[in-house]
Design brief:
The complex is a heterodimer of chains A (115) and B (115). With 115 residues, chain A is mainly beta. Chain A contains no helices and eleven strands. In chain A, strand 7 (65-68) and strand 8 form a beta hairpin. Classes of the chains: A mainly beta (115), B mainly beta (115).
């Protein structure tokens, strides 16, 4: 059973371009969480999705950021018109259900660098 | 709202010795879970140990143990017989019953094990 797969591992974008980050959850997991880790900081929750539904996006910046988890395929975190401040590591985690007692498994992250 | 605080940005320990990493938290709920994650240079988030708040007994996992002081809202991690492979960033995290699998992380402590 493969773990949570994120790609790409590293992504370089120029200011103003779009960044698309992909996350394939573990097999059997229908709950996906995205976190952002700015340099020298801990992970901050961004958004929680189930298949075809955004459940909690309270941690998402109001503009330029969006996320989806379609019925088929990976979850996508999309950042439009990237700025230098978007440079960070973006982590995806998945779990089989939404309970506090359920462990969430993390991918290895995507490091986004905006130049 | 949950908050997690780690007041030690960096710590170092000699190989084979014992080190304790501190963490305090705040939560408005009675049911919650506490975690320590390890993030080595590979950036992979690895669950080290977890503690259910309703359990009085401190969790242990081989060389890793916690000192859970519920009244003081303190959750420290003790690493015994430190090994070079323990060098990593360590994050304390909490999860409330009402937030499902969503985690709140501290700022992290960079632990260096010296030979």
């Amino acid at each position: 059973n493969a773990g949570v797969m994120q790609n790409p591992r590293h992504l370089v974008r120029r200011r103003g371009q779009e960044a698309r980050l992909r996350c394939s959850p573990m097999k059997g997991h229908s709950h996906v969480y995205w976190y952002r880790q700015l340099p020298e900081e801990g992970l901050k929750f961004m958004v929680y999705l189930q298949k075809e539904n955004i459940i909690d996006e309270s941690g998402m910046p109001k503009e330029r950021f969006s996320a989806e988890f379609p019925k088929e395929g990976p979850s996508i975190l999309r950042i439009q018109q990237v700025v230098r401040g978007d440079s960070a590591a973006y982590f995806c985690a998945s779990s089989p259900e939404w309970t506090a007692n359920t462990e969430a498994f993390f991918g290895q992250g995507t490091r986004l660098t905006v130049v | 709202a949950q908050t997690v605080t780690q007041s030690q940005p960096e710590m170092s320990v000699q190989e084979a010795e014992t080190v304790t990493l501190s963490c305090t938290y705040d939560t408005s709920e009675n049911n919650y879970y506490l975690f320590w994650y390890k993030q080595p240079p590979s950036r992979q988030m690895i669950l080290v140990i977890r503690q259910e708040a309703y359990k009085q007994q401190n969790a242990t996992e081989n060389r890793f143990s916690v000192n859970f002081q519920k009244a003081a809202k303190s959750f420290s991690l003790k690493i015994s017989d430190s090994q070079l492979g323990d060098t990593a960033m360590y994050f304390c995290a909490s999860r409330q019953e009402t937030s499902g699998s969503r985690l709140t992380f501290g700022e992290g402590t960079q632990l260096t094990v010296n030979p």
